[in-house]
Write a structure and sequence with these properties.
The chain is of the alpha/beta class and 312 residues long. The protein has helices at 34-46, 62-70, 97-111, 130-147, 160-169, 188-191, 193-199, 227-242, 247-256, 271-281, 287-297, and strands at residues 6-7, 14-15, 18-21, 51-53, 80-85, 87-89, 92-93, 116-121, 150-157, 174-178, 202-206, 264-267.
Length: 312
C-alpha cells in the first residue's frame, strides 16, 4: 500500500508521513556503507517517501554530497529536497546574511541541483539575539527564495518557545521541531501546533526516537537527557523486551499516529531501515503494550533539556 501524502502547512506541498533524515549520512550515528545508503535513498523514493532533509552540519557537507550523488539521473525531480544553513559545526554558528547566502550556494553545488525546495536556518537557539535572527537571517532566506534558490523557508530548533517566537515574529513557511512528539514528550501538541496552524506554518517533526534515546540499547553517553529520563527509558526498553517487542518500533508507531502531525523525519542509512520505518508508520501500536510503556514513562513525561542559550 502506498504511503498517503499530507499537506505541509500552507506551502501546497504534499509530503509523506515519514521523511528521510540525512543525519545518518553525516556519521552522527556511527559508520555506514555509502553505496548502501544511496540504494536506500532510491528504495525509499520507490516506496513513496518524498521528503529528504539534510544540512551542511551533517558531516561537514558529507550528507549533502551523498544525497547529491544519490539524486543524479532523474531522482531529484521525484522528491522534496530540504537543507539548512547557519550551523557549521557543534559549536560554530553563523546566521549572518552573507553566511546564509554562501552556505546555500555550497549546498546547491554539493546537492547537484539549482534549487532546494525548503531552506531553513539551523538551530537558531544558539544565537542569543533572536530578534537579530528574525531580521538578518530571515532577510537572507527571503532573498534566496526571491532568487529561486529555494522555494520555501523556515527555521529549526529544539526549544518550543524559540520556534513559537520564530513563527509569530517573521513569516515562515515551515519549522522543524524535534524530540517533542515522542513516547516521553508530546508537548508539541499543545505548545506549538496551535500557533503554527494559526499562522499557516507547516511543522516538520523529527526524531521520534528522541535522538536515539528510545531504543533497546543503553542511551548514548552524549545524550543530553537528564539521568532520570534515561533510567525511565531503560525500564521501558526492558519491559518491551520482556513482552517480545521493540521500544524503537513502538516509538515510531506512536509518533506516526499522533494527531496533527503531517510528517516526521527519521534517520535511515540502509534498505532494511527504510522498510522497518515504513512498516512502523503503516501499523498502529498494540494498545496494551503502549499503555504499559506510557505508564512507565509518565513520571518523566515532557521533561526536556537545555539547548543553546535556552533552559529545558
Amino acid at each position: 500500500m502506498p504511503l498517503s501524502l499530507r499537506p505541509l502547512g500552507s506551502t501546497g506541498l504534499m509530503v509523506s508521513p515519514i521523511g528521510f533524515g540525512g543525519g545518518t549520512f553525516g556519521g552522527f550515528y556511527g559508520t555506514f556503507d555509502e553505496s548502501e545508503g544511496i540504494r536506500a535513498v532510491h528504495h525509499a523514493i520507490n516506496r513513496g517517501i518524498n521528503l529528504f532533509d539534510t544540512s551542511p552540519y551533517y558531516g561537514g557537507g558529507r550528507s549533502e554530497e551523498i544525497f547529491g550523488r544519490a539524486l543524479e539521473g532523474g531522482w531529484r525531480e521525484k522528491i522534496i529536497l530540504a537543507t539548512k544553513a547557519g550551523r557549521i559545526s557543534k559549536d560554530v554558528f553563523d546566521f549572518s546574511f552573507d553566511a546564509i547566502v554562501r552556505s546555500c550556494e555550497i549546498s546547491l553545488r554539493l546537492l547537484k541541483t539549482d534549487h532546494v525546495d525548503i531552506l531553513q536556518a539551523h538551530d537558531i537557539e544558539f544565537q542569543p539575539n533572536l530578534e537579530w535572527v528574525f531580521d538578518e537571517t530571515w532577510r537572507a532566506l527571503d532573498h534566496l527564495r526571491t532568487q529561486g534558490k529555494c522555494r520555501f523557508i523556515g527555521m529549526t530548533g529544539f526549544p518550543l518557545g524559540v520556534l513559537e517566537r520564530a513563527i509569530t515574529s517573521c513569516k515562515l513557511d515551515v519549522v522543524i521541531s524535534y524530540c517533542h512528539a515522542s513516547l516521553n514528550n508530546t508537548t508539541i501538541l499543545e505548545k506549538l501546533l496551535p500557533v503554527a496552524k494559526a499562522h499557516g506554518t507547516g511543522i516538520i517533526n523529527a526524531s521520534p526516537l528522541s535522538m536515539g534515546l528510545l531504543t533497546q540499547a543503553v542511551p548514548p553517553d552524549w545524550h543530553p537527557a537528564p539521568a532520570e529520563v534515561k533510567v525511565a527509558v531503560q525500564k521501558a526498553a526492558d519491559h518491551c523486551a520482556k513482552r517480545g517487542a521493540d521500544l524503537a518500533h513502538l516509538a515510531q508507531q506512536f509518533t506516526a499516529h499522533l494527531p496533527g502531525l503531517c510528517t516526521t523525519l527519521v534517520g535511515m542509512s540502509n534498505i532494511a531501515q527504510v522498510d522497518a520505518n515504513i512498516e512502523a508508520v503503516s501499523s498502529a501500536p498494540e494498545p496494551q503494550l503502549l499503555a504499559e510503556v506510557l505508564e512507565i514513562l509518565k513520571p518523566i513525561s515532557g521533561i526536556g533539556w537545555p539547548s543553546g542559550t535556552w533552559p529545558a
